[in-house]
Amino acid sequence: MKRNLAYVLLLMLAAVASCSFTNKTFENDDKDKLLLDLITYVLEKGHYEPKALNDDFSVHVFEDFIDVIDPTKRYFIASDIAEFEKYKYQIDDEIKNTDITFFNVVYERLMERMGDAKGIYKEVLETPFDYSENESISIKYDEEPFAANRKELKERWRKQLKYATLGTYDSKISHMENDEIESTDEHNHTAHSQKEAEEESRKSTETTLDEFFDFVNDLERKDWFVQYINTIVDEFDPHTFYFAPEEKEKFDTSMSGKFEGIGARLQKKAEGAKIVEIISGGPVWRDARLEVGDEIIKVGQNGEEPINIVGMRLDDAIKLIKGAQGTIVDLTVKKVDGSLDVVSLTRDVVELEESYAKSANIIKGEEKFGIINLPKFYVDFNDYSERNAATDVAKEVERLKEEGMEGLILDLRDNGGGSLKTVVEMAGLFIKDGPIVQVQSKDKGKDVYDDKDERIQWDGPLVILVNELSASASEILAAAMQDYKRAIVIGSKQTFGKGTVQNVIPLNNMLRSNEHGDLGAIKITTQKFYRINGGSTQLEGVKSDIVVPDRYSYIDLGERDQSNPLGWDKITPADYKAWDGYINYEKTIADSEKRMATSQQIKLIEENAKWLKAEQDETEISLNFDTYKEEKNKDKEQSNYFKKLTDYDSQLTFKSLGYEEQLFTKDSVLREKRNRWHKNLAKDVYVEEAVNVLEDLKINNIKQGKLASVKN
Predict the structure, then answer these.
(1) 514, exposed or middle or buried, with CB in 10 Å at 0-12, 13-18, 19+?
(2) How far is CA 313 from CA 32, 242, 272, 308, 594, in A?
(3) Does 517 have pLDDT greater than 70?
(4) pLDDT tens digits, residue range 446-475?
(5) How far apart are CA 258 and CA 387, in angstroms?
(6) Kind plus residue range of the DSSP H or E element containing 241
(7) What are residue 349's DSSP bridge partners?
(8) Residue 266 and residue 293: Cα distance in Å, rounded?
(9) Fewer CB within 10 Å of terminal CB in the chain, N or C?
(10) Could you give all domains of the chain from N- to C-terminal order, each with its CATH number?
């Protein structure tokens, strides 16, 4: 992808230079206008299918921005929307003229209405709710009109707050009813309990809202402007996105699976930043003086005067805490027991292990199979030679072979994709050589990405697990193995359907000079990828060879359910030759379907999926406590019925590899994580069926005289 990114950047920078894009052009404009101009320029020149900036585009931005900032319609009233309407067909013209009047008008009114909302919810929560009243609330907010006036708005808040409080009230009533069994004056105590529960529930809801508005107060104007920019950007396709500088850093971290810091996840609290998780192997974990629940109240840099972070935005506090590897940070901490302590830590590179590939042995009688779970196709964008998904999977394959693996399951369920380079290299582990994916750019012909390495790391039975959330790079790998007839794909009817490629372009690179500081970056769709058979995975995804229902089977999750997706099409096939192997697709699929037809677990999963869909479609909620309780009890009864799903036991044994078991002696946290994973795998009917398919493939393999390789 580096070559393509360089090509895109080269074209853009050349165009920028020819347009004399200098700061002088924007000397009278603020940073927001500069951002708007740069981003729309990049979209026009670099997006795979740029949108025409016309009245239709303007209407979409208008409606979507209002929906983004007021999705439950509890801030704006009808007169506000009527006032905004005059901009409905002008936003395209504003964008062309680098004008942000519409945003400014909406933002200023939003701040005013949010100020009003604080007063409204306080007023509403002063009055007890009557849960005996027969009324309901629709949570299909997109079909609700905006309130006509403040009176209607207050009524909307009342219903929403009553709905929000109902669950808390129910919980408290249940708890009090359990306590009152020993009461001698049951009737009076019950009445008293209900009053207490109602009052405490309102107070709890008020506290939650207070915390929410504290968070909103921390947001700056620039944070809201980013929302506006991304509303514009989102009209091009759902995967084009503007990253503010802080978000770009988080994106890089999520893709590399590592960051430089202290190795703790923090949550904002009024008293400071509370430690909510300690990352195994990081500085906090190694130091062992801090624990979950401790609150950081001051941050100092290697002996310098500490800065009080109480009341500070969490993102700003984290900037003070994080820092380069090898530097020292002094943390003034309020311990769980209330004592104060100063803990000095040396920052280090913290690796988020759960983002990385992991493997296990599967024991079934005398047979041994392997499973590799890959959460994402990760890569360090700054240094590809560092840890990445392709090299990690190659290592796990080799380790599993050394321990006697007879068949391999590659689990790509919930894998949303990542680096294209890593998926091409990974596919090459399982075939001799040949094309893996075709990529088409905006103004160019197609490029074919090949595996040129003739070595095959694993030529034995291979199954790939997918679901509705397997996307992008996961679909490339599954599609390639399917087209080569190299593997059997097991999972949902079809995968997510993301057949587009994005590049991240730093906006600072677009200027000759810049006085505005870091402008962030834009992730922009620049290409579409296609299977080697010529078909796109866009919208359609990859259709599993063996379809197994899951709890999301009837819920809208795919690309086709996103906003503004690109369409499906096809191009000419690449030149490739199917795997000269042992897979009997028809017989393998038929045998699997026979097994699943008699599986009670599969039938229960299908039943659960239909129930979840029905629950999702229920948008009218009763605010009468008795009715609410009755419906909740029915849901609880049904939910308990489906808990049988977690009682399932495949009778398979899962065991960590030898190298990992040696790590357990020094890392009890890792041992616990792996034990939990193995326990879940043992209950996983999809993994069980994958093992059954591997057995079938193994039998065919032996019949064909093609024993699985144990060496390169």
Answers:
(1) middle
(2) 22, 21, 10, 12, 57
(3) yes
(4) 999 999 988 999 999 999 999 999 999 999
(5) 10
(6) strand 241-243
(7) 260
(8) 10
(9) C
(10) 54-235 (no CATH), 258-351 (2.30.42.10), 355-504+532-703 (3.90.226.10)
- Classify the C-alpha dihedral 60-65-70-71 as positive or negative: positive
Asked if residues 336 and 293 have their Cβ atoms less than 8 Å apart, the reply is yes
The burial class, CB within 10 Å (0-12 / 13-18 / 19+), for 676 is exposed
Within 10 Å of residue 377's Cβ, how many Cβ atoms? 28
Residue reference for tokens 């949902």: 492
Tell me which H or E stretch contains 522. Answer: strand 521-530
Q: How far apart are CA 306 and CA 422, in angstroms?
A: 43
Residue position matching structure tokens 């890089």: 252
Token digits for 598?
């008699």
Alpha carbons within 13 angstroms on the beta-carbon side of residue 264 total 28
Beta bridge partners of 296: 273, 333
Amino acid at 384: Y
CB 535 within 8 A of CB 484: no
Q: Tokens in use for 478?
A: 């599954």
* pLDDT-derived band at 213, boundaries 50, 70, 90: confident
Q: How far apart are CA 307 and CA 316, in angstroms?
A: 11
pLDDT higher than threshold 50 for residue 5? no
Residues 6+ apart with CB under 8 A from 711: 401
Tokens read off for 206: 């008020």
3-state helix/strand/coil string of 265-293: EEEEECCEEEEEEECCCCHHHHHCCCCCC
Please tell me the predicted confidence (pLDDT) of residue 601: 94
Name the residue with higher pLDDT: 10 or 234: 234
Euclidean distance between CA atoms 243 and 245, whole angstroms: 6
Residue-wise pLDDT tens digits, 176-200: 766 554 444 444 555 568 888 899 9
> What value does the mean pLDDT of the chain take?
86
148: amino acid identity, one letter:
A
Per the document, the length of the chain is 712
Q: Which is more confidently placed, 173 or 35?
A: 35
**Smallest Cα–Cα separation from 141: which of 185, 202, 191, 76?**
76
Whole-Å CA distances, 124 to 118, 151, 203, 689: 10, 11, 11, 54
Q: Packing angle between helix 31-46 and helix 221-234, nearest 10 degrees?
A: 20
pLDDT interval class at 700 (50, 70, 90): low
Alpha helices by DSSP H, listed for 180-244, are 186-218, 221-234
> Structure tokens of 412?
């790509």
Q: Are 566 and 500 in contact (CB under 8 A)?
A: yes
Residues 632-668 have pLDDT tens digits of 888 888 888 988 898 999 999 999 999 999 999 988 8
Bridge partner list, 367: 364
User: In Å, how far are 31, 211, 545, 632, 634 from 171, measured between CA atoms?
Assistant: 49, 21, 46, 12, 16
